[in-house]
Write a structure and sequence with these properties.
By secondary structure, the protein is an alpha/beta fold. The protein has twelve helices and 13 strands.
Length: about 325
């Protein structure tokens, strides 16, 4: 069984709402879809299968993926700000719930949050858990430029943890970034911003609450910088303003979960060696980059078959409290 926890689906209604706008993000029609400008020099094509659930299902069948946990890609509702952000987060959650209701064995969903008004956002957390039954919440590495440890953002994340819901931490455009080449943005800036977001949440005390936080793309650069972080946070002479943590930073990193969106075996093996199979969850980032490669890398990972099954599906079933599909999609040999 294969459960892809990192798979994107965009709302056509949301993209069309961005058409004709006077501030970013803005969208325009193109052949077979849309092009959406999220920031200066950073635009994305949105075409099937990211726009069409039937095309998404076809791609899943071809890849032998039994279930996908769907999420919005960039642009996301919080980029709109204020009441508009909250309105569209609610609307996208309703759309997502309808897709899951129509295909309960194939899809689960990461809920959207607008972060326009903290009280309204917290109410939406409760609605998504209690009424819509979504698997957890997608939170971006900054909220339209606001850090994840900003008091109004952190209050929402603390409430998510209190509700025993999982958080999928997804990268976005770094705050105050100077325009970059899009490939550099997605390959370097995105995973770096995810890593900074994790360390901010550690410093804010969220990891002391035993959250389920799944960082995208193998946790960004954190596995590679683990020893450096441990040394600078504990063994080197303290900086005058250094934050006091309840435990060594490296121990907090042991509490992190990551998805397996990776494009080389060595980084995946490093994460497995550092975190163990129980903290890795299969993800592809479909339809971006090379969504077929993460599954092939897991097939080649040096681990036991029981651990491989946990990475591919068991951990998602356990941490996201999903119902296992009754029909398994055959995989091409």
């Amino acid at each position: 069984m294969r459960i892809d926890i990192h798979s994107h689906l965009m709302s056509v209604a949301f993209i069309e709402h961005l058409m004709g706008g006077h501030s970013l993000p803005v969208a325009a029609r193109e052949e077979n879809g849309y092009v959406t400008e999220c920031a200066p020099r950073f635009a994305l094509h949105h075409r099937p299968p990211i726009l069409d659930i039937h095309s998404k299902l076809q791609h899943m069948d071809q890849a032998g993926i039994d279930m996908a946990v769907l999420s919005t890609a960039l642009p996301y509702p919080a980029m709109l700000g204020g009441a508009e952000a909250d309105l569209w987060a609610t609307r996208l959650n309703d759309e997502l719930a309808a897709v899951i209701t129509a295909h309960p064995e194939r899809f689960a969903g990461w809920a959207n949050l607008g972060f326009g008004d903290p009280e309204r956002t917290i109410s939406e957390v409760d609605r998504c858990v209690d009424e819509l039954g979504l698997a957890g919440f997608q939170v971006f590495s900054n909220v339209a430029g606001r850090p994840v440890d900003a008091p109004d953002v952190l209050a929402v994340l603390e409430h998510i943890v209190e509700r025993n819901a999982a958080i999928h931490l997804h990268p976005t455009l770094p705050a105050n970034q100077v325009p970059l080449d899009p490939a550099i943005m997605t390959a370097i800036a995105f995973p770096t911003d995810t890593s900074l977001a994790v360390t901010r949440l550690i410093g804010a005390g969220l990891f002391d609450r035993q959250p389920v936080i799944i960082a995208s793309h193998l946790g960004g650069v954190l596995p590679w910088l683990r020893d450096r972080l441990a040394t600078h946070s504990q063994l080197s002479a303290p900086f005058p303003s250094q934050q006091a943590l309840a435990r060594p930073l490296a121990e907090y990193l042991d509490l992190l979960h990551v998805d397996t969106v990776a494009y080389g075996l060595a980084p995946l093996q490093l994460c497995y060696d550092q975190l163990g199979a129980g903290r890795l969850l299969f993800g592809t980032d479909h339809p971006f980059a090379d969504p077929g490669r993460p599954g092939l890398l897991i097939d080649d990972l040096l681990c036991t078959e029981a651990e491989r099954s946990s990475i591919l599906a068991g951990n998602a079933l356990r941490l996201l409290r999903l119902n296992a599909p009754q029909t398994i999609v055959p995989r091409a040999s």
